[in-house]
């Protein structure tokens, strides 16, 4: 009975695609200028949320200023053009 309940709960979590993100800043950012660089991926919503979680952690740690950088290169993974044959 207990095992069935655990399996059902796991299936419900999998169905909802719950992902938990945690941030731990390794050194003090109090009074410092912080630059957060986050690369973009296919899942833009998750990428932006990860950056916002990190910005919030820096803000609650009393960073003087926080600058977010999100380089987005939508064409960077396309195939390279073929080189032309010499004429």
TrEMBL record:
GO cellular component annotations of the record: cytoplasm; ribose phosphate diphosphokinase complex
Residues in Ribose-phosphate pyrophosphokinase N-terminal domain copies: 22-86
Pfam families to which the protein is assigned, alphabetical: Pribosyltran_N
MF (Gene Ontology): ATP binding; magnesium ion binding; ribose phosphate diphosphokinase activity
Xref: InterPro entries: Pribosyltran_N (IPR029099), PRTase-like (IPR029057), Rib-P_diPkinase (IPR005946)
Entry annotated with the keyword Ribonucleoprotein: no
Keywords linked to the UniProt accession: Nucleotide biosynthesis
BP-aspect Gene Ontology terms: 5-phosphoribose 1-diphosphate biosynthetic process; purine nucleotide biosynthetic process
Record carries keyword Mitochondrion: no
Entry-linked SMART domains: Pribosyltran_N
Function: Seems to play a negative regulatory role in 5-phosphoribose 1-diphosphate synthesis.
Assigned protein family: Belongs to the ribose-phosphate pyrophosphokinase family.
Record-given protein name: Phosphoribosyl pyrophosphate synthase-associated protein 2
Lineage: Eukaryota, Metazoa, Chordata, Craniata, Vertebrata
């Amino acid at each position: 009975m207990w095992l069935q309940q655990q399996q059902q709960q796991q299936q419900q979590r999998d169905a909802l695609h719950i992902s938990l993100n945690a941030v731990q800043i390794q050194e003090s950012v109090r009074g410092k200028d912080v630059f957060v660089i986050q690369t973009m991926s296919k899942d833009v919503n998750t990428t932006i949320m990860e950056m916002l979680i990190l910005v919030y952690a820096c803000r609650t740690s009393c960073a003087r200023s926080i600058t977010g950088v999100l380089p987005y290169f939508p064409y960077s993974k396309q195939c390279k053009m073929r080189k032309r044959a010499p004429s």
